[in-house]
Amino acid sequence: MTTTIGVEEEFFLVRTDSRTVEPAGSRVVARARETVGDLVSGEFHEGQLEVRTPPCDDTADLLRQLTAVRAAARAACGADGLGPCATGTPVLAGEGARVLGDHPRYRAGVRQFGSMLDDFTICSAHVHVHVPEREVAVLAANHLRPWLPLLVAMSANSPFFEGRDTGYASWRTVIRGRFPALSAPPYVDSLAQYERLTTALQESEAMLDASLPFWDVRPNPRVPTLEVRVMDVPADPADTAALTALVRALVVRSVERVRDGDAGPPVCGELLRAAYWRAARDGWPGSGPDALTERVVPFTAQARRLADHVRPQLEEFGDVRSVAAFLRRLDLHGCGAQRQRASWARRSRLSDVVDDLLAVTAGTGGVRPA
Questions:
Q1: What is the dihedral of CA 171, 15, 356, 167, to 10 degrees?
Q2: For the chain, how many structural domains are there in total?
Q3: 369 within a domain of the structure (yes/no)
Q4: Which GO terms describe its molecular function (predicted)?
Q5: CA atoms of 362 and 344, how far apart (whole Å)
Q6: Roughly what angle, to the nearest 10 degrees, separates helices 59-78 and 350-362?
Q7: Taking the CB of residue 347, how many other CB atoms lie within 10 A of it?
Q8: Does 129 fall in a domain?
Q9: Structural domain of residue 140, as residue ranges?
Q10: For the whole model, what pTM was predicted?
């Protein structure tokens, strides 16, 4: 039986003249819904929108769906002189990066966390893999935890933040990492322990809602999936599809191990936190702590080990070639952060970075670094 997959991608709404973020989310979403319905929605700020795919059986169909819904978002942006821009943080500022979206949960978050949310302007990619049993899902997350920093390095696409180079490959990861209960999930030995922890965190006010934790891996509370939320949104939809293939293979392998009685490796939380930081700073092709071996290992070597680890599942779903092609692209061009910095290096203009991101998000080109 095929294990279905789905993706959510978040984009900034950027003016094509000034390249700044525009608070036009409500208008753009309303227009886009005329063609794709609820596959488009608003986000935390009015300068963002989210697109999603329906459940897909294979990554080729997923890529087609992503391309179609991105095209619908782009068409809906056109009337306002905007474009959807796939980057983990805004390259240039704009009033849209500060206008809160109209949702009770967003307002509750501001009341609870205050100024910690002042610069919480980030865009992510979320991968959903069908796992109907919540008990199995929370234990499968134990197996995913050691690999999360590698997914950060592979997807890192946020080196600039509102006009400055942060010195990091994924500044989005740094912004998320300063919040309580907003990074890797804790190791748990059962669904009951997981639910006790989320309840305690809600009562401590470190978490808004025990049923909706924002950890980087979680059983989704609304649909029967294990959701992986650790990645910056990639500019190229082919990269999103390949990362989804890797995530599905890893989830399916993890579910198989759970069903065989393996609850997962209890890797050190502090080491995992260090691995996140190193992946966020360096991106691909840097190095970072491997939470399984407790040694600093190049991300290229970690990726080869992950591909070997899940090769039977990649073969089962027909994803070996697409993942191999993605790893070759990383080796040739680096992650999204390197691409952004290469765009800037051509003429030292951040507007060029935004133009390149707009083109790649729309599927109309862009320049890869040599």
A1: -20
A2: 1
A3: no
A4: ligase activity
A5: 19
A6: 120
A7: 9
A8: yes
A9: 5-362
A10: 0.95
